[in-house]
Each structure stands twice: as structure tokens, then as C-alpha cells.
């Protein structure tokens, strides 16, 4: 049985707007979010999600509940599976049995959390109030182009000069909760005596850091002059872990959905300034390198993440750390890019210098993760020497090992193999990659197999001469190869896979070398191609398409001839007959279209 304390903690960690927003398009409507109910058909939205109550309710059908309830109702999963799904999304582990925390201790933990949240809320209100009567801070913010509306949206404030200003907010200035929340610092002498307490933040513009429910959990403070440190953040507390939190995410959630991507910057001011200038989908890490937890949280918000870094050395180092954090979470349905601005600019200054449209263009042209990874591995190595190519492979190895065996990883392997004059299979073996995707070997020796002839031989000749054409061979064609028989189908399938492994940059020479390394199976075909004049790829493409259409058509005819002896019912035969004849018609139309285009 899952402990109720864990359930309560889970519901406190997840945000129902995020949970529901993965499946329902939500729009802000007052204090709540609105959308079309997923549980009944409706044209006008009557489905509401409350971020403060962490509850959903449909005024049309009456459906309502928490994040757990939504997962159960929407996906049909059981209670335990729904809890596990949500727990995994926030990095929690579901206990297998009831916890052993005594009720009194449990109550103490809950009371501490409430006390910390209350202290941070009061401090945030105090700092906001102080900003109204701080002309130097107001002038600074106006100088950065910020309006009062944006300052209010992000809850900006000001910590005035003085060592114990928070004494006016908290009558019990010596309370333990003030130190636990990081609002004050206790300084003691070498003997641990003569403790002196003072405010952590002084003479700084204050940026409240909110969790996904909008609660203030920490602060970032920026000096107005050239003092050090330029930015001062709250320490790690029971409420705040900088490796998990992102500044501005609470404010940016809807904008991220609307824009279709999130822009990750390096600082608080970048986020606020970009929101002012028309890019409210920006967030920032909190004075630390990007972590896998940050990436996981971002990819739950959107399918596209774009990291923006300064073009200087520090920006490059930060980009490298972000790349490493992203690799475990790379998948084929997500897009991760890296935007590098000129050395003298950050996002704020770039937009001011060149305008919104220019920055949008930079975002559109951001470097894909695959390209950045290859560039990082290549570094300054001499790709004209064996040593340089080997060093590139050495530097790329840990990066590729961190990735799951996805199609994107295979594409990167192709690129790396081409640059280092090796084959994708050799890269995967050398790097000891988990679940290699490149085929390991070709078919058995020719002496043990029947010889190819007819259409099979024609297709093989085209693929050996022009291996990139294999990229056009679809699964339907591979299935139709069974018409040649199991042995020929296996041979063709392996040949197609080996040719596709070389990618678009493959050529006859490289492919012939690869085939020879696997045995003498294709020596006769290679020999014939070498003797003949080089054929034109587009011409051979038409030959290949015609041959594959013929194979598909022959396979369809064979199935049609066997259909009435298949033992299916009359209705089933009728359905399949129409399907097969429709596929034949489609093949005919494709052939006629190619003839008309010649």
C-alpha cells in the first residue's frame, strides 16, 4: 500500500496544469485554465483546471479530481500505475510499503514545509513593497527597458540597505525558519559563540523564484552597481534545489505552449527582458549548470528546447554542460538546439541592438544537437591525419555512450563514421554502444546460397552501384521481397540495411569495400559494375522504382490467387480483395505518373 504521506507529497510536487496540459490544450482564463473536456464531446470549453486548488472540474459532465484522478480517467491506468507515472515525472520513487515515520515526526515535517513557504511569501511581499520607494532600483529596471507591468508579472522587488530589515517583517527575528529558508545568515566566531544574525540580501533587485504552483521558494538578488557577487541566490533548502528548478517557468508555461518551444537562457534578467520584448517563452537555470533534471522538466513542457548561450568561452563551456545533460533524454520525437550569439551580446542586448525579428531568425537557425555534438568532438583536431581522426572518435565516445539507441544516434554515428573514414558498424563496436543499430555482418558465403536472378539481381545491381538509393526502399518493399523466397528476401534485406547504413553520402567504392570485407557474395556484381560505364543515379532510381513496383505487384497477384483458398469468411475475403486491388491501382498510378514526368 502506498503511504498517504507519499501521495500528499507527490500532489504537492506535481502541477496539475502541467499534467493536464500534456493532453488538453489549455488557455488562461482568469485565475484558472480552460479547455475542451476530454471526457465528453463539447464545442465550448467547460473544463477548468485550478493551479491554486490543484484540481480539475468540468461544468458540463461533472468530471473532477486531482492529477492522479486525471491520469486514471484519461489513460485508463490503475491507481498505482498513475502514481508511479506522476512520481517518475518529478524524480520521486514510490515506496513499496508503508513508511515507518512516526505520526508526530510526519506532522513536524509538514509543519516545517508550511512555515518555510509562509516565510518566503512574506519576504516576497516585503521586497515588492520596498521597490515602490526605491528610486535607484526603479531607475535601474527602467534603464533595462522594463515596465511596471513586467516587474509586477515577475514579482520583482528590492532589498534595501541595512543588516536586519526583515526584523520589521518577522517580529521573532531569531526564529529558526528564517535561517532554514536562507533569508538570514547566522555568523559565529571560531568557538561557535557570539552568533550574529543578518539579512542575506541587501541593496539588490530581488527576483522571486517560484515553483510550478506559483509559490515563492527562493530568491535571486542582483546588485545595482559593480559589487560582488553580481548575482546572489538563496542556498539549498527543503523547498529549493537549484538543480531541479528553472527561473521563469511558472510565468512562461502558457507562452511555451503557444510558441511551441522553450528558450533557455543564462540569467534572470535575460528572462525578464525577453518577456518585455516579446519572448515570454524564456526560462533560465539558477546560477548552476544545466542538469538532466532541468532537461527532463523542460521536455515535459514542450517538444522543442533551444538553449541560448553567449559566444564567449564561458558560454561555450555552459553549452557543453547542457549538451551532456541533454544526451540521456534525446529521443526521435524531441528537438534540442543550441543558439550561440556574438561574443559581445547576450539575448537581452542582442534584441535591443538588432530587433525582435533578427533574434527570431537566430532562433530559427539555431544549431541542432547532432551538429553541435559532432563539432564538439571534432574540436581543433586535424581531420587530415589518422591521429586527429582517432582523437575525434575518442572525444565522441562518451557522448554517444550517453545516448539511447535512437535513430538520431544512428544518424550521428553515420556522420562521425564518414568524417573519420570508418564504417558505422565499426564505430558502434569500437564505442561499445548499447544495442547497436548498424548490421553486424552480411549473409553467408555465396557458395551456400542460390544465385540471384531476374528482378532480384536487377535490384541488387542498382543498390550496389548507388547505395544511397536504398534510403528510398520502404518497409512495404522489404515485405514484398518475401515473394522471391526466404533466402533471397534475407539477402536483399541485409543489402538494403548495409547500404542505408552509409547514408546519403555513401558511394560505390565505400560500399564495395564494405561488401568485400564481409565475404565474396557480391564479387560478381561488383566486377560487372566496375567494367561498365558509370550510370546516372536518377536513371537508376527509375529502374529501381520500376523493379520494386513489379515485385510488389507480383506479391499482390500471388496473394490474390491464394485469397479464395485462405479459409477466410466471405466478408473477410471481400475486404481483403478490395484492399489488394486498391494497392494494385496505386502502383499503376505511380508508374503512369513517372512516365508522364519523363
Automatic annotation (TrEMBL):
Listed GO biological process terms: DNA replication, synthesis of primer
| EC top class, as a word | transferase
* Any one of the GO CC terms: primosome complex
UniProt cofactor(s): Zn(2+)
Residues in CHC2-type zinc fingers run 37-61
Domain annotation Toprim: ranges:
260-342
Keywords of the record, alphabetical order, are: DNA replication, DNA-binding, DNA-directed RNA polymerase, Magnesium, Metal-binding, Nucleotidyltransferase, Primosome, Transcription, Transferase, Zinc, Zinc-finger
Q: Look up keyword Nucleotidyltransferase and say if it applies.
A: yes
Xref: InterPro entries: DNA_primase_core_N_sf (IPR037068), DNA_primase_DnaB-bd (IPR019475), DNA_primase_DnaG (IPR006295), DNA_primase_Znf_CHC2 (IPR036977), DnaG_bac (IPR030846), DNAG_N (IPR013264), DnaG_primase (IPR050219), TOPRIM_DnaG_bac (IPR034151)
Q: How is the cofactor bound?
A: Binds 1 zinc ion per monomer.
Q: What is its EC number?
A: 2.7.7.101
Which reactions appear under catalytic activity for this entry?
ssDNA + n NTP = ssDNA/pppN(pN)n-1 hybrid + (n-1) diphosphate
Keyword Cell membrane attributed: no
Entry's CDD domains? Answer: TOPRIM_DnaG_primases (cd03364)
State the superkingdom. Answer: Bacteria
State the Gene Ontology terms under molecular function: DNA binding; DNA-directed RNA polymerase activity; zinc ion binding
Into which family does the record put it?
Belongs to the DnaG primase family.
Protein role: RNA polymerase that catalyzes the synthesis of short RNA molecules used as primers for DNA polymerase during DNA replication.
What NCBIfam families is this protein classified in? dnaG
Note the subunit structure: Monomer. Interacts with DnaB.
Q: What is this protein called?
A: DNA primase
Q: Which species does this protein come from?
A: Duganella callida
